[in-house]
Amino acid sequence: MNRILISIAAIAIMGITFTACGQNSKKSGSEATKTLVAYFSATGTTAAVAKDLAEVTEATLYEIKPEVKYTAEDLDWTDKTSRSTLEMQDRGSRPAIIKDLKDADNYDVIYIGFPVWWYTAPTIINTFIETYGFKDKTVIFFATSGGSSLEKANAEFKEAYPEINWKDGKTLNKASKEDIKAWVDTL
Ligand SMILES: Cc1cc2nc3c(=O)[nH]c(=O)nc-3n(C[C@H](O)[C@H](O)[C@H](O)COP(=O)(O)O)c2cc1C
Q1: Could you state, in chain order, the average pLDDT of each consecutive group of 10 residues for the chain (187 residues)?
Q2: Which residues line ligand 1 (CB under 6 A)?
Q3: Most informative mutation of 53, 93, 117 for ligand 1 (most atoms within 8 A of CB)
Q4: Rg of the chain in Å (alpha carbons)
Q5: Residue 124: which of 176, 69, 177 has the closest Cα?
Q6: Looking at ligand 1, which atom is closest to the CA of residue 173?
Q7: Considering only the top CATH level, what class is 33-186?
Q8: What is the largest CA-CA distance in the chain?
Q9: What is the reported pLDDT for 25?
């Protein structure tokens, strides 16, 4: 009888041990790298690339939304008094954003996408970075443009936010999902 009881106890202990191990391995799964693809897009071009990038990287997709949307007049770069011209002339401008990104601190790698404005990132990207900080996180830019590169934005942001672990970003104009994957694999 005692032997039977000892056997039952041993089986129960093994069961508990295996269950605990199973829970541990689940936990280590949830500790895998978490990736965010955040983007601002005034007319939809960067949004489309962001969606593909999020699929390729299995990331959470998040839109950076201005509190006040940009109208076509706001985006007129030939108008010296348009909103975008004035914001880009004043590099200290910080257009307000809707602050609804949840658990920002949980992400290890953050891709930030935008349209190139005046050869660099719109200042709303500064607002986004200063709102969430991203200290010691890996941040990578991507953008769409009429042809300008990200050279200026890469250099400016590295200097402005040295607490972030920057990796050089890239313009993804007309990039296919295969092109995006090829770039991500180089990072
Ligand atoms: C205010 C403004 C400034 C721009 N400046 C540049 C520029 O310096 N270089 C460039 O190649 N394209 C420039 N563009 C073009 C945009 O980068 C391009 O159309 C982009 O793909 C738009 O992306 P979106 O649809 O996500 O807003 C500018 C567009 C706007 C509205």
Answers
A1: 52 43 40 92 98 97 98 98 98 97 96 98 98 97 97 97 97 97 96
A2: 41-47, 75, 77, 84, 115-119, 144-148
A3: 117
A4: 23
A5: 69
A6: 21
A7: alpha beta
A8: 93
A9: 34
* Domain definitions of the chain by residue range: 1-32, 33-186
Res 31: pLDDT:
67
Residue of the nearest CA to atom 29 in ligand 1? 117
State the pLDDT at residue 15. Answer: 42
pTM score of the predicted model: 0.86
Q: What is the C-alpha separation between 150 and 161, in angstroms, rounded?
A: 16
Of 160, 183, 157, 159, the closest CA to residue 170 belongs to: 183
Helix (H, G, I), strand (E, B) or coil at 165: strand
